[in-house]
Predict the structure.
Amino acid sequence: MTVKKSPAAPEKKRLEVKAVTVAGNGDLNVLFDQFMHTFEEFKSANDQRLAQLETRMGADALTAEKVARLDAALDGYKSALDRAMVERERPALEAGTSPTTGQEYKDAFAAYVKRGEEKSLSIGSNPDGGYLVPDETASQITRLLTTISPIRSIAGVLEISTSVYKQPVSVSGPAVGWVGETAARPETASQTLAEVTFPTMELYAMPAATAAFLDDAAVDVGEWIAREINTAFAEQESQAFVNGDGVNKPSGFLQATQVAQSSWSWGNVGYVATGVSGAFPAADESDVLIDLMYALKSGYRQNASWVMNRQTQAAIRKLKDSSGNYLWQPASVAGGRATLMGFDLVESEDMPDIAAGSASIAFGDFSRGYLIVDRRGVNVLRDPFSNKPYVQFYTTKRVGGGMHDYDAIKLLKFSVS
């Protein structure tokens, strides 16, 4: 008698996702093509996950793993694109002559940085020690900060020559009314004014170099200083613009008093609650995003942006509208921004992760809602004595920031109410 063997159970195949590979030359078009290809794979895998959720108790573990890995790959490509953009936007620092300081001062500044020679540095001298960097270097530092500091890239920015900037703001206009041709004209209430104040705080960095490095004739000292301090400055600025407590640093927009949008008043930032502590609603998740969008007045909404961190963006990336379209869309061109519901999405790692009571998503016109105040000039003090054999460069700039228009930014709060 022949015994038939039971057919072997089919072996489950592991779903593989290729690791992120960045082109060696950092070519933006190559990186962007890889990013878009990965996004198409992500959509396909996520569609499969959603279909499994609808037809059974839960998604297959391998499918969920693939979605998570593709999501991480998208983040990797996005970071690579951001780095490539920063590199591409770095122009040469010493290409021309400054109309205010001239080539002579730039050469003298280079001699000061390299060898400590001060005899030609009458322009920009500081009686307390240190010298203003040439205009090209100072403006280059600002450009680099704009490129890599997410909040600075969308906020209002003002350069001043004093330590404090004050501005009156009209909270409500004068009362008006209709009257008949011969009717009496009673006196109307005057407009209400509030004053916003932005003190500038000192931000510093202290890069160091050996004397041998500085003696190298090929070293462009202006560009070297800009490269050394721009990342450190940008990281500290970004943290302060979001969460700064206003003590020796700018005041962040998340530190303003938060109230439910229905109770909003000047001096507070309004929020919309998700209705669930630490999560989106179980059904119709995107509805709270729509509520947040329309909590903002139309005049602000025209120039609005979303602000959130990478983890929150990963959760948003999986959402669809009622027609099955993904709410999150990648940039249409290399170097552009992703969009959410048609508005630019700005990624800021200083925004909080989704948690109970967290205000993890901001939406608003940041150019009107948040003001960054830069005091003109960047100072450098050369110190060859404190840390021999290194020469340290105590580099400072003064920056302030705070809420400028409390009605221009709204928050999504992951709470019951």
The chain is about 35% helix and 20% strand. The chain has a mean pLDDT of 80.
